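Sample entry (565 residues):
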Amino acid sequence: MTTHSVTNDDAPVSSAAAAVWGGQDLLSAFAAATGWLSANRDLVNGLNVFPIPDGDTGTNMVLTMRQALEEARSASDCAQTSASDVAGRIYHGSLMGARGNSGVILSQIFRGFATAIAGRDEIDGRDLAAALDSARAMAYNAVLQPVEGTMLTVIRVAAERAALSAQLTPSLSIVLSEALRGAQQALATTPDLLDILRQAGVVDAGGQGVVCILDGMERHARGEAARTFAASGDQAGTEMAFLDHITELHGEDPFGYCTNFMVFGENIDFIRFRDELAAMGRSAVIVGDDRMVKVHIHVLNPGKVLDYALGAGDLGQIKIDNMRAQTDDLTDRRAQRTALAPQPDELGTQAIIAVAAGEGLARALRSMGATEIVPGGQTMNPSTEQLLQAVDSVSATEVILLPNNPNILLTARQVANLTNKRVHVVPTRSVPQGLAALSAFNSAASIDSNVVKMEAALSGVQTIELTRAVRDADLNGVSVRAGQVIGLIDDELVASGDDEVAVACQTLALARMDDAELVTIFTGEGAKSEHADALRAAIEQANPAAHVEIHEGGQPYYRFVIAVE
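Predicted structure, serialized as C-alpha cells:
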C-alpha cells in the first residue's frame, strides 16, 4: 500500500498557539497551504488512479489554489482586511481558476468555508469547526453522486474531528491540529472504502491533497517555517505501479475527454441545466447559480456538451483533455524512468534564467546556454516580480533559476509558488557556480535529471572575488580597514591589504590551485589590464598545467571574479 506522510521532526514551534486569526493571518495560512501542496504536487499526482489515472490531480489542485491566492492577495489593504473578505476572495478565485474534478470540489470547500464565516473580522477554533462543516456540506452537494474513499471522505472526517475539538477549546491552532489528524486518519482508510484504490495499492490523490492543504495551514499556525518533504518527480513516476494494470482497474471503457468550462448567462435554470448536462457523461461536478456555472464532466463527445451549454449562455475558460492520451503519456514516462533512461523533453520545454551584473558576465552565461539574464547581483538584488516576469516571458513550461548570489536565493525560491510553470532553483551562489551548472545542463534530459547534475557540478568550482571593504572589520582572523582590498574564496574572507595584486596573489595561494584545470578571470569595472596579466602569471606559476583565460566581465564592485575549476 502506497501511503505518504509528512513529518515535522526538529521543526520550530511557536511559543503560543494561535487562538484567533484575522484576515492577514488567514491569508498567510492559505499561502502556506498553497506552498505545501505545491511542494507535494508530484506526490499527489503519483497517487492519481480515480476516477481516471491521468496523473494531474496534484497539478489541478495547485493551479486552483494559486488562482485563489492571487485573488486573495489583490486586496488593496491586506493588513486591514477581515477574515470574511479573505475567505470570499479565496472562494471566488478558486471558482474562476478551478481545474479538473478536484479543483472544482476544492472551490466548493472554500465556498462553504467563506459562507460560514461571512461578516467575521476574526475567527477562532469554533468558527473554524463551523467553516469546515460548511465546507463538507458544500463539497458533498457539488457532486451529484458522492463517492466515499475520496477527498469528500477526508474533508468530512476532518470537519467531524474539528467539531469535537471545538467543544473542548476555542483555540484555533488546537482545533486545526485535530482536523489535520482526522484528515490523515481518513486518508489512510480510503483504500478500504474505494476498491480501485485497494487494487492499485494507493490512497486517494484528492484526499492526499486535502491533507497537504490542512498540513500547510497547521504548520503555519504553529509558526513552523515551510520545509519540503515531497517525493521527487522521478519517485512519483516510478511508484505508479497501477499503470501496469489499467485494463484490470478500469476495464475496456474509453476514458473520453475531461471537459471543463464556464457558462455566463441570465436566469439560468441551474438545477435543470445541471441535471441534464450531468446525464451526458460521468464524474460530473457542476456548481454555480442563475448567472454563472462551472462545469467539469467526462464525456466521449465534448462538442455535444458544449452545444447544449451554449443554449444557457456564453462559454468561457474551455479546457478539454484527452484522458486516454494523458494516461498513455504517464505510462510511457514511467517506463522510461523505471528503465533509468533520461526522459527527453521537447525542444524548448526547458529554459534557464540567470542573474548577473555586467554585460561580460551576462554574455558568458548566454554562451553557456542561459535563456534570459536578469540584471542583479551584490547590492542590486532583483525583486520577486522581476524574476517572475522573466519566468513568464519565456515560452518554456519548465524553468531553472540560477540566482548566482546567496542574497537572491530566498527571492528565487518564492517564484515557484507564483507561476503555473514548473520552476526549480539551483542554489548557485556566484556566477562561476552558475557557469559550472550550465556546463552540466543537457537539453535532452528531464528537468529533474538536469537539476541533480547541475547541483552536483557546483562543488567542482571555486569562486575567488576581489573587492574593497566598506567598513572596518575583523573576520576569520583577518583584520580589514574600510577601503582596503579584500579577497574572498566562496564568500569567505581570507586576505586583505592595500595592494590589489598582492591581495589577489595571497588569495590565490589559499585556493585549490594544485589540481585546477581551467581558471577564468573576469575583469570588473575599473580593473587594470596589467593587474589581470599579473594574476595570470601568478596562476601559471602556481600550476603550469592550468589553462588560464581572461574575459571582460564588466561587473560593478568586484575588480576580479575568478572561477577555478
